[in-house]
Structure formats: C-alpha cells, structure tokens
C-alpha cells in the first residue's frame, strides 16, 4: 500500500519570492480571511513591514504579533490572542524560532501556515518538527507541515553569516544521521525508511557537489542550501520522524542545551556533534570525512569557538545517548574518561580555536 506525505502546496525559492503572497495561487485562499502575522525583533520586523507594504491585505483582517522567545508561556499567550481575533491563517516571518512558533500556533488552531524565512539557520524552514522551550529546556514537537513556504533570496542575502553557517551545519548532519539510522536498522533497534534516507542523502549530496564548484556565487550557495534544507524537512515528513536528519550529532547538541547552557546556535552545536559522530563512525565503518567541507564553509571546528570547555564537551558526549530513545553510534561505545580525552584530542587536536576562513567571503556580516 502506498502512503501519503505532507508537503507544502506552494514552495518558492527565488529572488522576490515574497511577491507570491499576492499571486492568485496563494492570495485566492487567504483573501478575506483573518490573518495573524507572527514575527520577531527589529530586524525581522523590517522584512515584515516590507511584505505588508507589498501585499494587499485588508487592514481590518490582519494583525501582527511579535514574539521574543519560544517558551511555552509565550506560545500559549500567542495562541490565546489568535483565538480572540478569530485567526484563520498564520503567517510566520522570521528566523528558526519564529517559524517554529508559527508552526506550533498554526497546528493548535488547525489554521493553514505560511512561512517566510528571513534566514536559513536550520531545517525548520519546512519541516513537521518544531523546537520550543519548556522550563528552560528545549524540546521537539510534531507539528503540521506549512501550506506555503516562500524563501526570498533577496532577503536571505542580507541575513547574518552566522545564521547561514549554522544552516550548513544542520544540513551536513544528514550524513552522520543517516549512518546512525542504518546502524540502528542493522541492530534491529529501528526501521529505516529507504525513501526518506535517499531524500535526506540526496539533499546533502546536492549541497556538497555545489560547494566544490570554484565559481560558486553567494546567491547560488544560499539557494542550494535552502533547497537542500527544504528537502531534508520533506524527508522527515516521509519518515514521520526527524530520524533522516538527526542522529548522535543532534543528541550531543541536545545535551549541550540541557547540561551546558546551550551557548550557541542549534546548527553550530550540531556541527560540533558531526565532527564527534563522524570520528566514531569512521572507527566503525565507512564514513565520509566532512572536515574539508567544514573548512570551506567556515563552520566551527572547535568547542572553544562556541564558548564551551573541554569538561562541558565531555559531559555532553557522555550524556548524549540518554537524551532520547534513539540508537546511534554512541550506543556502540562505552567511553571511559581516558577514551573521552583521546577522542577530544583526536577530533579537536588543533589545540586553540580554529575559526576557518570561508571560501565564500562570508566575513564581517
Ligand atoms: Zn537540526
């Protein structure tokens, strides 16, 4: 029997993509409905103003809600305000947190969700998963797929480099996650969905192929990374879980959030996790070395780059297997203190911070 998959009915990844909000294929189903725009701080508010200037919304039918964090209290408050205003459509304009909040509120209201990312810092731009803060700890929730995703390259080009680089980290993690999924399947701890794993692998391969092109422009790099992150989100929808894009490297990032104060962006922490996971995976089987891609893209290659100490990284690695019931390469090792020190030495042997220079001129933004 075949299975049905949730994907956005409208997806645009191009310059000027925000204009599609007023095109008949989208405007026809939002026209005359009560709309709530969920957006973030001053930077994303500027984009929101630009969007609203260009779209002929009836001023009586929309209102804007600003959110400053993704805590459960804030989400409950936004949901109440949406209920009071009779919201029928949710539009999320912002970075990963805003998009996640828009997905959660839209899912609770059973309202169609439109997402306009202002940065591509993670695969949240088009996935059935949202991360929220529950009692100061991050937790993942299953949410509805957005009905439309409009990724405007003109907006992404002016987003901070750090956010883009975090997105690259979240994308590269597909490699270590798929390795872990296969491993779990072989150990009879999980069932692998071949279709979902092919999609997640093709997404990251398409990205890796493009970054090897010497004459690559920043716009092409952003477009391909956005496409690949969208495909990663769809792979999760196919799998019915985050498995195709989340393995040991994500568990390490979750442990950094939970035990060590979550000092960096999700994609940055996941990138550190990729370096650790690929080291262990190479001990166990064939795993591609992603280090050259890290250097090329300017990804963090040392825990000190993200403000963590050696003891914190050791703690995160040792706690990671218990962060959720997910079999990964970490379950194949029971690392004692001496082995953990060896791992840290081998993976981060540069000694001091190793901020790599990006090959794409991603500096100073
Ligand atoms: Zn992620």
TrEMBL record:
Instruction: Fetch the InterPro entries from UniProt.
Output: G1PDH (IPR032837), Glycerol_DH (IPR016205)
Domain of life, per UniProt, equals Bacteria
Q: Which UniProt keywords apply?
A: Cytoplasm, Lipid biosynthesis, Lipid metabolism, Metal-binding, NAD, NADP, Oxidoreductase, Phospholipid biosynthesis, Phospholipid metabolism
Q: Does the keyword Flavoprotein apply?
A: no
Is the keyword Lipid metabolism in the record?
yes
- Under the GO molecular function aspect, what terms does this record hold? glycerol-1-phosphate dehydrogenase [NAD(P)+] activity
Q: Name one Pfam family in it.
A: Fe-ADH_2
Q: Which Gene3D superfamilies match?
A: 3.40.50.1970, Dehydroquinate synthase-like - alpha domain
Known EC number: 1.1.1.261
Q: What is this protein called?
A: Glycerol-1-phosphate dehydrogenase [NAD(P)+]
The organism of origin for this protein:
Caldalkalibacillus uzonensis
Lineage, top ranks: Bacteria, Bacillati, Bacillota, Bacilli, Bacillales
